[in-house]
Design goal:
alpha/beta, ABC transporter transmembrane region fold, binds adenosine-5'-triphosphate
Length: 596
């Protein structure tokens, strides 16, 4: 999977527009009952609106011609009643349809969100977060217009057009033909506009996505930008992206705007033909003044919904690319998911075995990051992974939690292949702490309880005490009720790590993974945390990745990772005696410490 960035347009599979539209409108089928009621009400309102010209025709041709004032009054009273019924029906229809279309939107958004939650690290590695946000927020929002209009406009307008055309044909087929003669011109014109404009809207969506990704990245890294005084460069980049976005919009709109004039011209031409043929060729006397007047109303009743339909079609073409982008994600299969027949892992004892495990990231399948790695860890053992940066330490622990799937070989926990276990039972028993310990906006208590939602108040406090977070929490004005903002702003980096520790502690993991987790804690606190971890996780398997050798000396075994394999393994003393890679690493840090 190629890595995308805010500067590169996303690739998208080509799908048939018809299929996308059908798929989008299929969501409406969940609300058949409501739609049937609406169709029923709509049939009533359309009938009433179609009756109006006939009433006028009758009033002029019969009542006025025969000077029947009573009949005229009766007709007027009937028209008022019909109008009130029309208003009521319209209101009911609009309300029900708005409800249905908004529920459909909710369903699509939830389906998209649920699916994104199941996608593996590979998916998130391959694209900027801002582009995913653009699909969940922006693209779903644009669908809203199409869906609501499809239910409130498309059906009534389509029915009106059909009914009016039938009435016109029945009443006077020659006049009707004259009025409808320009329809084929409209159809051909729309086809040509649509083919060009669809591609342009696709480009526009991609540019919107790029802009979104850039702004998200820029704001997430604002501290780095400001500390490097890089604002002029980011401003320039933003300016370029905004311009590309603007140009892609203008490109699309220039063509899309032709929809309106095309409808107006064909409408005008249709009207002209009606009057020309009616007056000059057939003759008004032959048609009757009432029928002629009714026709002039019908032609407006026919073309007005046609204009709405053209607008709707325009909107559909504008936004169908949003639907394509939403379905593109929904159709993305997760690289990591439960296999058919996957079983829950029972309570983990902690034996971890790698047998000839090789691994390559999917964007570079030929570059083996791990090459035939084998090891066996007994329950309760503490394993430290050391080695140069980029050696593959994090990759090893990511495979245990199945954030990526091993390319070759077998990984077993307590004798069970991790790929045959359900993800939930596996990950809920892993305690993973990394350098980047994301905290959510909310109270400190909520953040700790995130590790196990049913943890009691005592368990939350106990976990905080075990990792020495309790003291600093109690010094805060609101204690455990202190609200922290996104990423834990307002707390020091060390305090954020202590909270993340408490969160992991409360989850009572079967296997603990600490990936550079103590790097931001001062040595004194680190000792306290280590005591807490020792006490709480006694007898539990743990993997510790650390550059600071003081952190790992106490490990039962140390694996020295380099070039995708375990170069040395043994206890601190054993490896020092070996005088190999670990010895050199230790000496270099030791002499550095002495210099300091
Ligand atoms: N998501 C990814 N996609 C592609 N390649 C990756 C990805 N993550 C890591 N790599 C590559 O895999 C190799 C091993 O990375 P890994 O993070 O496992 O190293 P590490 O030993 O943990 O390094 P460090 O000590 O710096 O954290 C590196 O060369 C890195 O470039």
């Amino acid at each position: 999977m190629a890595v995308n960035s805010s500067r590169i347009d996303e690739d998208q599979k080509e799908v048939l527009k018809k299929d996308t539209m059908l798929r989008m409108f299929k969501y409406l089928l969940d609300y058949k009952k409501e739609i049937v009621i609406v169709l029923f009400v709509m049939a009533g309102t359309i009938t009433i609106s179609l009756l109006a010209p006939l009433i006028m025709e009758y009033a002029i041709n019969v009542c006025v011609a025969q000077k029947d004032m009573k009949g005229l009054l009766r007709l007027g009273a009937g028209a008022v009643v019909l109008y009130l019924l029309f208003l009521m029906g319209t209101k009911i229809r609009m309300r029900l349809m708005a409800e249905v279309s908004n529920k459909v939107l909710l369903n699509i958004r939830e389906e998209l969100y649920r699916h994104i939650q199941t996608l593996g690290f590979g998916f998130f590695d391959s694209r900027p977060t801002g582009k995913i946000l653009a699909r969940i927020i922006g693209d779903v929002n644009s669908l809203k217009d199409v869906l609501s209009d499809s239910v409130t406009q498309l059906i009534p307008d389509l029915l009106t057009v059909i009914f009016v055309a039938v009435i016109m044909l029945v009443k006077n087929y020659r006049l009707a033909m004259a009025a409808l003669l320009t329809l084929p011109i409209l159809a051909v014109g729309m086809f040509f506009i649509e083919t060009t404009v669809h591609r342009r809207w696709q480009v526009y969506r991609k540019k919107t996505s790029n802009l979104n990704a850039y702004v998200h990245e820029d704001l997430s890294g604002i501290r780095i930008i400001q500390s490097f005084a890089a604002e002029p460069e980011t401003k320039k980049m933003f300016h370029d992206l905004v311009n590309q976005h603007y140009r892609s919009f203008i490109d699309a709109v220039l063509v899309a705007d032709a929809f309106g004039p095309l409808v107006e011209i064909t409408w005008g031409l249709g009207g002209f033909l009606l009057y020309f043929i009616g007056i000059r060729i057939v003759g008004v006397e032959q048609i009757g003044i009432g029928t002629f007047l009714a026709f002039s109303t019908y032609i407006a009743m026919f073309w007005s919904p046609i204009r709405n339909l053209a607008n709707f079609y325009n909107k559909l073409t504008t936004n169908i690319s949003a639907a394509e982008r939403i379905f593109d994600i929904i159709d993305t299969e997760s690289e990591i998911m439960d296999q058919a027949g996957a079983e829950d892992l029972q309570e983990i004892k902690g034996e971890v075995v790698f047998e000839n495990v090789s691994f390559a990231y999917s964007d570079e399948p030929d570059r083996l990051i791990l090459n035939n790695v084998s090891f066996s860890v007994k329950p309760g053992e503490t394993i430290a992974l050391v080695g140069p940066t980029g050696a593959g330490k994090t990759t090893i622990v990511n495979l245990i939690s199945r954030f990526y799937e091993a390319t070759k070989g077998s990984i077993k926990i307590d004798g069970h292949e991790v790929k045959d276990a359900t993800l939930k039972s596996l990950r809920s028993q892993m305690g993973i702490m990394t350098q980047d310990n994301f905290l959510f906006s909310g109270t400190i208590r909520d953040n700790i309880r995130y590790g196990r939602l049913d943890a009691s108040e005592e368990e939350v406090v106990e976990a905080a005490k075990a990792v020495s977070a309790h003291d600093f929490i109690m010094k805060l004005e609101q204690g455990y009720d202190t609200v922290i903002s996104e990423r834990g702003a307002g707390l020091s980096i060390g305090q954020r790590q202590l909270l993340a520790f408490a969160r992991t502690m409360v989850s009572r993991p079967g296997i603990l993974i600490l990936d550079e987790a103590t790097s931001s804690i001062d040595t004194h606190t680190e000792l306290l945390v280590q005591k807490g971890i020792d006490a709480l996780l006694k007898g539990r398997t743990s993997f510790i990745i650390a550059h600071r050798l003081s952190t790992i000396r106490k490990a039962d075994r140390i694996f020295v990772i380099d070039q995708g394999n375990i170069m040395e393994s043994g206890s601190h003393e054993e490896l020092l005696n070996l005088q190999g890679a670990y010895y050199k690493l230790y000496r270099s840090q030791f002499s550095q410490m002495e210099k300091d």
